[in-house]
Amino acid sequence: MKRIILTGGGTAGHVTPNIALLPRLKELQYDIHYIGSYNGIEKELIAPFQIPYHGISSGKLRRYFSVKNFTDPFRVLKGFHEANKLIRTLKPDVIFSKGGFVSVPVVMAGKHNRVPVIIHESDMTPGLANKLAMSSATKICCNFPETLEHLPKEKAVLTGSPIRQELLSGDREAAKKFCGFTSDKPVILIIGGSLGAAAVNKAVRSILPKLLENFQIIHLCGKGKLDASLAGIDGYVQFEYIQKELKDLFALTDIVISRAGANAICELLALHKPNILIPLSANASRGDQILNARSFERQGFSIVIEEEKLTDDLLLSEINRLYKDRERFISAMKNSDMQNSIETIINLIEKASSR
After folding, report:
1. Where is the Glycosyl transferase family 28 C-terminal domain (predicted)?
2. What is the pLDDT of residue 64?
3. Confidence class of residue 169 from pLDDT cuts 50, 70 and 90?
4. Do 3-160+339-353 and 166-334 come out as alike in CATH topology?
5. Which of 105, 226, 248, 286 is the most buried (most CB within 10 A)?
6. Is 13 annotated as a binding residue?
């Protein structure tokens, strides 16, 4: 039986693609282990899948001044020694890393022990953790054609992001019943991420009466961002966050308004959902969501509205344009080269583990 170590953490985006690979890895009878931080979000997300979890010390390498910059390098060094010991004990055939700072010592320890390492970069330009890991990688997977320019040519593979296959098996009728919707009007799904997006929420609610003339609305508005004054409005439902029923909501949805996190937009691509992307402002991030969104726009998958330019009139106009031209966006997504991400990545894993 082949053994694989998965690693990645710090945010859900560094874990969910690993989770998406689990069913196929189990089908192929891999002995799967996970290395993450002692108490990071990855530990909680991996727990339901009942695979061995190994915690190591983790530190964040920052581009800005922080007192922790003086202590975290020692945590990273400790993490390397712990990962090195685990790899010598487990003797994996291959390591797959989804990134995040906890993955850096694992990837480096993998190379130190001559274990093939495959890493995955979700965003258009590599984050700091993956930049540090690149030299230790055998192959580097990515989501965007433009990313290939930033990667070593002999290692880079355009794969797209593995998504949870259950999202493809939603039940429209179950979603209609869950939302109390009819078949009379198309459905818009608004996704602001688990923490919500205040600017998106505000814009959607400002034009809600006009939207409800032609659409039904499912609004995932984020924790603590429900608007009690809108409860009970016919054709509009709001939730802080949805997990179990999300696949059904996607099945019912005609168009989507979303932030532009890499995993989220790759799910929209796999589901062929026409979408408007409102990326997180560069003032609140390193600008990766803007780059992600613009790539999808160039490929004909999305309409992009930058947060600084978001107005009620513009949003309403673009929603109507998207719905009218939806078949063109669906066709572009169906013809994408990134439709078989899981199998492409699994083939790389199989090849690496057979050395």
Report:
1. 187-343
2. 46
3. very high
4. yes
5. 105
6. yes
Torsion angle, alpha carbons of 126, 127, 128, 132, to 10: -40
Does the domain spanning 3-160+339-353 belong to CATH 3.30.390.60? no
Q: What are phi and psi of 211, to 5 degrees?
A: -60, -40
Tens digit of each residue's pLDDT (9 = 90 or more) over 16-67: 999 999 999 999 999 999 999 998 899 999 999 999 999 999 866 544 445 4
Q: Please indicate if the annotation marks 164 as binding a ligand.
A: yes
Per the structure block, which two tokens stand in for 20?
């998406």
CATH label, 166-334, candidates 2.30.30.50, 3.40.50.2000, 1.20.120.420, 3.30.540.10: 3.40.50.2000
pTM of the model: 0.84
Q: Considering Cα of 247, then 248, then 252, then 258, what sign does the dihedral take?
A: negative
Q: What angle do CA 288, 291, 295 make, to 5 degrees?
A: 140
**Is 194 annotated as contributing to ligand binding?**
yes
What are 107-114's contacts with CB under 8 Å, separation 24+? 107/7, 107/133, 107/136, 107/137, 108/80, 108/83, 108/133, 108/136, 109/80, 109/83, 109/84, 110/5, 110/83, 110/136, 111/135, 111/136, 112/84, 113/84, 113/87, 113/88
pLDDT of residue 67: 42
The response to whether 289 counts as a known ligand-binding position is yes
- Strands (DSSP E) contained in 192-230 are 216-220
**What does DSSP assign to residue 234?**
T
**Beta strands 139-142 and 53-56: pairing type?**
unpaired
Q: Is 12 annotated as a binding residue?
A: yes
> What is the SS3 assignment for 217?
strand
